[in-house]
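Hi F.,

I've been meaning to write this up properly since the lab meeting, where we talked about keeping a consistent format for the predictions we share between groups. The idea is simple: the sequence comes first, exactly as it goes in, then the structure tokens exactly as they come out, then a line or two of notes. No screenshots and no reformatting. I'm using this chain as the first example so we have something concrete to point to.
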Amino acid sequence: MNDSHGEQARRAPRADGHGAGEAHDPTAPRDSRAAHDSRAAHDSGAAHDPAAGPAPEGGPEFHPYHHPAAGWGAANSVTRFLVREGALASGPRAIRRMNHEDGGFDCPGCAWPDDTKGLHLDICENGIKHVTWELTRKRVGRDFFAAHTVTELSEWSDRDLESQGRLTEPMVYDPESDHYVPIRWQQAFDLVGDVLRGLDSPHQAAYYTSGRLGNEATFLYQLMARELGTNNLPDCSNMCHEASGRALQAAIGTGKGTADLGDWERTDALFVFGVNAASNAPRMLTALAAAYQRGAQIVHVNPLVEAAATRTIIPHDFLQMATFRATPTSTRNLQVRIGGDMALLRGMAKAILEQSDSDPKAVDQEFIDRHTVHFAEYRARCEATDWAEIEQQSGLSRAEVLAAARIYREADRTIMSWCLGITQHEHGVDTVREIVNLLLLRGNLGREGAGPSPVRGHSNVQGNRTCGIDHRPSPEFLDRLAEVCAIHPPRAHGLDTVATIKAMHAGTVKVFVGMGGNFALAAPDTPYTAAALRSCELTVQVSTKLNRSHLVHGRRALILPCLGRTEKDHQAAGVQRTSVEDSMSMVHLSVGMKRPASPDLLSEPAIIAGMARAALPDSTTPWEWYVEDYDRIRDTMAQVLDGFEDFNRRVRLPLGFRIKQPARELVFRTPSGRAEFSTAPLPDVIPAPGTLALGTMRSHDQWNTTIYSHDDRYRGIKNLRTLIFMNGDDLRERGIEQFDPVDITSTAKDGTQRHLTGYLAIPYDIPRGCAAGYMPEMNVLCALGDYSTQSDQPLMKHVRITVSPARGGE
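Output, unedited:
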């Protein structure tokens, strides 16, 4: 590798949001307006700015990864991380308490369920990093903010912002000095209350949440919004699994999967679609290895063959670690083209139905007749779909599709699991419904070892939706809320994430409250989102660490620091526990074990209650009483939420309790009272000549928008994030070689274009016509108007782009 490659990595790429909305805010404070344009360049996606500090040491490196997932690689990575963060003592102590049912705290990372066998090391590399990142000894208090203006901080990299440490006290933005300055908690609440009460309409405020919020805080948050008079409750599900919920609700009458961890332990076949388990749900590796060892078939479907789809060494299996003995985690990998999963599923169904002509056991006709509707129409749709179309749209050969169908046919019990590789497409709802279609064909619902199993990528994001964070609440839920809580909740649907950004940009939403997350970076169309936030009268961010969303703020802005999940939550009734729901509908308690990072931190329920009382001074809701003892919140939740009856007792049972799933008992809350086959035609997912379909994704050393390093071990990348993975033939066709700088242009549905320049090309094992790169840097390429008409989700996994050699110069 020559020096020019290293120099290219050090040069900050340019992100240009042409057509995405003007980044300059004419109402910006006078002391910071001059610097606004330079801030906008970073807002729009640049991953590293030289002004932020040193770039990664050494030039970029790419060496294809051929080792097992987890194992000693994970152990070494964790050790280096603990040393770097100065947590060799505190980190292991916390790790021993993570995901333990007896006095432990729930991992704030992914939503994979806790082990059912009482495993003492039910942990993973990324979970350890996530907890250690929260346990840092570094602090961001008034002295830090006094030393740095917002304009200066806006030039820092996102990693450098978060790595400063934990926020310690509430802060308010002072436009005259361009600094955040301290504010007392009650003053902060009064500011929120004054602004909310001064709005012309309650619909001029939006209340966003990420998956970090516990169930009790979630319930109070939605109660506050609805008592104020709005259903504007956008959440991260709007960007991730909205398609799953809508598809499952339509098909089987529940927005959740029906399979649990026990089913994973009993299934004969696992089909895993669009999941990068080793990075996004690493504890799944244990289930995959166990499934292989007992003889189950495991088929991974993904444009990239990820490390989790090869083999693993489970770190808590000491014999494997000592002998370096890896266990395979797949029996077959199918590399569909981006968006081609539905065609594969349709092909498998077509093969099964063709086989049923001579093999009556190929389909479960008794199950279909008793429990489903629209089968004849679905069969006709499959028969009318020819094999040439299936091959073309999936990117697979007929032989590959038939082999997958054979695995499905020969399995008595099958689970189908998926994540964002399925949902972040225009046709995400249709694809999830096609998964259910295939399951219904062989009666893989309502019995052990079978069923649909979506994988949530963030702890308690599913619990947020269960406990009321929904911009489209059901009338039944609102009726119970009104009766139990003595309020008059609004009935009109509210705004989701995309609609909220548009409304802020237009000035019709004037207040944005964010409970956790990093909205400015997580959302699509980064410059447009930044301009929308800056158009607000007030932005409120409830956070544990400094991030980009604190710097991309409204005319007035608050940073309200909260307790982390690892910390003790002291209230009047003693140390409190909060509940969370995992990907498989298990609800259990989590209790912090560390002293809070600052005596000035408040819990999320206390912050919500403080804002609610200030905004609703005459409310009869006992906000302060709720915060004294979270059992009181749970008692109210038990009366409002279906499936939470006897909440306080059941959540204290070993491993908690599972929310009832009527569809698992073959009770379908659909209009027909049965499971419903769908009959959507196959979408055309083939890129136009000269274009590519881009899917954005996390690197391995990253959690959502938190970036631990510029490395991606499982994809063989070191010292580089501003890159694009492409098929080698696609690169050669464009005259591009490894590490060559390229220009990337996306074209939105409305014809507008967005650009990234100076990214480095990496040849990778990915189908022709497909490309991949990292979020949040590449979010700039996804236009806000490019969202699914089925789910309203941004099309993060199917961005239409062109790639060419960099023009050079600026």
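Notes:
Confidence is low (pLDDT under 50) at residues 1-14, 16-54.
The first strand starts at residue 14 and ends at 16.

If this format works for you, I'll send the rest the same way.

G.
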